[in-house]
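Title: Request for sanity check on Reverse transcriptase domain-containing protein prediction

Description:
We are preparing a figure and want to confirm that the structure record we downloaded matches what your pipeline produces today. Could someone re-run it with the sequence below and paste the raw structure tokens into this thread? We only need the token string, no images.
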Amino acid sequence: MLIQALEDRQAVHIAIIDFQKAFDTVPHQRLMYKLERSGIRDYLPKCIENFLMGRRQVVCISKEIEFCCGREWAPQG
């Protein structure tokens, strides 16, 4: 698809996103709202939502394990 667009001399938009620290302090609902309001359409907002939402984090300290849902963190690793 990209090569065809380039061969046809069409405009090509590419987004390169570094997720490492980008979402650690941003409330996910607010981010999704701003994406909707900015007019970004198609699959990109859904991809970001699927990446961030509904994940659980496991914390283990001294053999104590706790599961929690992250609201302001991005998956790491």
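Thanks, this matches our download. The longest helix spans residues 28-38.
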